[in-house]
Amino acid sequence: METIVIKIGGVASDNLTPEFFQVVHEWQAAGKKVVIVHGGGHYISEMMEKMALPVTIKDGLRVTDPQTLEVTRMVLLGQVQPMITTRFQKAGLQAVGLNAGCDQLITGAVIDEDQLGFVGQVAHINTVFLQLLTQKQHIPIIAPLGITEAGQWLNINADEVACQVAASLQAEKLFLLTDVPGIKKDNEWLGKVAFSEMAALIEDRVVTGGMLPKVLSAQKALLAGVSTVCITDQISHDGTEIFGVDQLAVMA
């Protein structure tokens, strides 16, 4: 059975349309497993503004001091995840809200505490736990948080989590849903992009800001065995489809 991983952004999670759920139902009916990773940056920033806390973004990543980490956990686990899980359940799908503390689901490591605070990267995914759920047609809804071996919670970019989850499950396809229909170059949306073209898109600054973590994470996922990564605003079309890891790229 093939696995499809979908990352939905904080804003995209407001737009879980009947069409979205219809596609998920069709995938499950065809025997495919579905896993969701959700973001929530929009809601986190909104809450921080209400609390008069500064929001600092570096290279698409939220600088996370202890107070920002607490707000992030509160919003992701107390607001965004329940909202998304409820929408799936109303659509007749068996959704299970999960976080890093569920059977050591996501073990993380600090990237650079001096520059970013408690921002992490994925060290390990409990793949067996996810497979036990998806085999029974449950849809895991995963928050982008990790816990270090020492028990420190970490804020992890949701695209990074989605790509690592997809890699651990050897997914056939990873959708990175965002609020735009793909990568734009010279005022045109790109359809298909080969893995070998991605470095040039970054170097030429076609890919910047919030799109940068998506593309870097997509590279990791493809190198780790995910067949295709789609950056799009809805799962009914592939948007910018990134595919193919050539041997030179692997050896490099």
Kindly give the count of domains: 1
By CATH's scheme, which homologous superfamily applies? Acetylglutamate kinase-like
Radius of gyration: 17 Å
* N-end to C-end Cα span: 32 Å
CATH topological fold name: Carbamate kinase
* Classification by helices and strands: alpha/beta
Task: Give a brief rundown of this model.
With 252 residues, the protein is an alpha/beta fold.
Explained architecture:
This protein is of the alpha/beta class. The protein has one domain: 3-Layer(aba) Sandwich (Carbamate kinase), CATH 3.40.1160.10. The chain is 37% helix and 25% strand. The strands form 4 sheets. The protein has an 8-stranded mixed sheet with strand order 5-8-2-1-11-15-16-14, with helices on both faces. The chain has a 4-stranded mixed sheet with strand order 6-7-10-9. The longest helix has 25 residues. The chain is globular, with a radius of gyration of 17 Å. The C terminus is likely disordered.
Helices, strands, pairings?
Blueprint: E1 3-8, H1 18-29, E2 33-38, H2 41-50, E3 57-58, E4 61-62, H3 66-90, E5 95-98, E6 106-110, H4 113-116, E7 119-125, H5 127-134, E8 139-142, E9 145-147, E10 153-156, H6 158-168, E11 173-177, E12 184-185, E13 188-189, E14 192-194, H7 198-203, H8 211-223, E15 228-232, E16 240-243, H9 247-251
